[in-house]
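Hi everyone, sorry if this is the wrong subforum. Our group has a chain we'd like a structural model of before ordering constructs, and none of us has done structure prediction before. Sequence below.
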Amino acid sequence: MTVEKVFVCERPVNNGLHLYPGQNLYTGEKPLENEFGQLNSLEIDLLNVASGIFASDLAIPRDEREFFIRDIEITIDVVNLSSFEQIKDLLETALLTVSRDNWTINFVQKKGVPVTDFNWNEKEGAALLFSGGLDSMCAASDFIKENKDLVLVSHNSHGNKVVDDCQNNVHSLLENYYSKQIRHVHVKVYGRNQGDYNFPTDRENTQRTRSFLFLCLASLVSRRCNFNKVLYMAENGQFAIHLPLNPSRVGPFSTHTADPQFVQITKDLLKILLRNPEFDIINPYLYKTKAEVFACLPEELRKQSYLSASCWMISRIPDNKHCGYCVPCISRRISLEYNNIEFDEYAHDIFNSDLNNLDDLDDKRRNIVDYLEFISKFNNLNDSKKYELLIEFPELYNSSFDTNAAIDMYGRVSTQSLAVFQKYPNIIKLIG
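Answer:
Right subforum, don't worry. Here is the predicted structure as tokens:
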């Protein structure tokens, strides 16, 4: 297996992918300085590390089947070398957990003045990762209702106007509904062609390490907003714990962007790097289904939640519709309809389609069949069935979450999904 070599630095590089901060690597430094003033060397180092990892993830496409897992060796120049050497092992483990790739991280001393004082304030507040999806919309609403001091932190790549618009539209919707200004810090990070430095045109779409970048951006924003220690990553339990729908989706073939173990490791490394032993990352929806999360929204906001986006393909579909057949789309639709909300927002209405006429390998059929097989395993839970589930899903043995609470949450996913499917004869046919 080939080891892909990446260098994040300003010095000349003879081989491998060269990511030059400020040139073909846009790190987010400028928008953060526009928002908060000059950044110190530790903040700039962290931006270079997080953006370099994210850009490497994009620039190195996965191969098929047994070559789906990548070996990536990335060398990053940092001013605060001793600080980053302390978190090197944790960082490699976090990236393995979130991307299922093999990462080797090398740090090289860069000229500059290391940070010796990195104090945190004692102000209570919430920094929330704000993707423009349903879960982050619901979490923002919850925090506003609780009258908490709130800042929303958004990220997207250059040129993704559809996601940009979703984030901004949901932000405006919340401000208008609650008649309250809500601070929204929007940071773009991406690879680009700039001057003599090119960025690969063949890209990897999974973006598994985006959540690491997102958490690093939010941690810096949290401190700069004078909050003391906490940021929030709102993700419903079905997608946070993210059990594979079937054996073919195990490991690298499943996303782990909000995996509780990844979040725990990232929290530990940020505690050390940012010199705050009380720093925490909290997912308030870890044991809630998406339908339960959506139910937290006031009724008027539920009716306007079409402004949010859950599908990664939304920018590639005419009229910016959701595809309708990826697993996030299936889950989104169930959560809406379980709460008596329906939108004409799907390019493919697979709930009303005759899926038996589709090839078994067609994703429209395959995804719904896999989803149905998965929820059937959690239907009518009892102690005996829970024991069987522990054997089938070893991922449930995880010290980062409550196993019983996770199983019960998936049981409710099953109940809520089947309740929605009852009104769709073509889905009922598949259930049998």
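For your construct planning: DSSP finds 16 helices and eleven strands in the chain. The CA atoms of residues 145 and 172 lie 16 Å apart.
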